[in-house]
Amino acid sequence: DKVPGLAYAVVLDGKVAHLKTYGVKEIGKEDKIDQYTVFRIASVSKTFASTAAAVLVQKNILAWDSRVKPYLKDIDFRDKSYGQELRVHHLLSHSTGLVQHAYTNLINQNVKYSEIEKLIKKVKFVCKPGDCYGYQNVIYSLVGDIVEYLSGNKYEKFVSKYLFEPLQMNHASFGLNAFMENGNAAVPHKRKNDQWLAVKVKPNFYAVAPAAGVNASISDMSKWLLAQLGNSPEVLSQRILDDMHTRRIKTTKGQAHYGQWENLDTAYYGLGWRLFDYHGWTGFVHHGGWVQGFRTEMVFNPDLDMGMVILVNAQGVHVNNAVPAFIDLYMELGSDKLAQTKVDNRKDKSDN
Questions:
Q1: Contact call for residues 179 and 215 (beta carbons, < 8 A)
Q2: Taking a C-beta distance cutoff of 8 angstroms, is the pair 135, 155 a contact?
Q3: Which of 38, 59, 222, 345 lies 20 to 30 A from 201 at CA?
Q4: Model pTM greater than 0.90?
């Protein structure tokens, strides 16, 4: 009763253990959310962009350490020496050294991505690439340009061909038109005078597809969660998953939006994913996202083979608190699995 509607999935031991939907697509109407109702997943789209790059790495077409400049023919950087040092992994870990959120304000103003790209040459470097963390939307989306350059396909088509289709994410799509034309899409909501108000879908962040352009249902996202846990090796090898889920740069709790999480130990960013240690346990992988009227959270732990994703058609609620709540509940109820995992981890270390 706290939000108009939501959908969530829980994966345990390689299977979808729970998939539930609640509420309605639009407040005041009876059309209920189901497992195929499409939501905007906002910045969780970044996880698809890093995985698209991973597909090229898997095919030996690209390397995480590849310099980006040869693939970005029309992009200039203010500091040419730092620009020459920029690598693919810097883009995907938000460690380019460029001023954080460069030109996110222009996305909010509905300026075209192609026009914003022309302004990148004005953005200052605040540190050497790899030396500091600064979250990006426009700069992050340059990975889409690289995918297009190397594959010869539009970024959206590449993701559909190599990720959506083989993973049978049958309701996933990109962009405003696909969202609006879907007959089973959730309506965004904002809070006003202690009541939920349905609002129009804002097109702005669709302009940066790699950063925030994906639409998906909870059915789709449960398959994405399973794939990230290694259950689709024919699509994503374990080596590639390990690469993406490896710490690249440390962040503060505030930078990671974890300020209210009491049991958080440390936080990092990998390649398209946030990483954190929690209550003495390592290996948690996470990303959240929001655009007007929508919230998404996804978290998993490959060592424990568990995870959760939640989609909400409302903003102004602390949805990311669902992440520690889920982990706390798992730790409370899954003591046998936790104990066995500790034993297995110790054995692996001794064997190595």
A1: yes
A2: no
A3: 222
A4: yes
Residue by residue, DSSP assigns 162-178 as IIITTTT-TT-EEHHHH
DSSP state of 349: H
Q: How far apart are CA 102 and CA 301, in angstroms?
A: 31
**Nearest partner of 54 among 88, 29, 103, judged by Cα:** 88
Single-letter amino acid code for the residue at 147? V
What is the pairing mode between strands 195-198 and 294-301? Answer: unpaired
Q: How far apart are CA 170 and CA 160, in angstroms?
A: 10
Residue 182 CA to chain centroid, in angstroms?
Answer: 22
Say which amino acid occupies 341.
T
Query: Which residue shows structure tokens 């222009």?
Result: 106
DSSP 55-101: HHHHTTS--TT-BSGGG-TT---SSHHHHHH-BHHHHHTT-S-BPTT
- Angle of helix 322-333 versus helix 335-351 axis, rounded to 10: 90
Cα 74 to Cα 101: distance, rounded to the nearest angstrom: 21
Residue 162, classed as helix, strand or coil, is: helix
pLDDT in tens, the chain (352 residues): 689 999 999 999 999 999 999 999 999 999 999 999 999 999 999 999 999 999 999 999 999 999 999 999 899 999 999 999 999 999 999 999 999 999 999 999 999 999 999 999 999 999 999 999 999 999 999 999 999 999 999 999 999 999 999 999 999 999 999 999 999 999 999 998 889 999 999 999 999 999 999 999 999 999 999 999 999 999 999 999 999 999 999 999 999 999 889 899 999 999 999 999 998 899 999 999 999 999 999 999 999 999 999 999 999 888 999 999 999 999 988 766 665 665 565 455 445 4
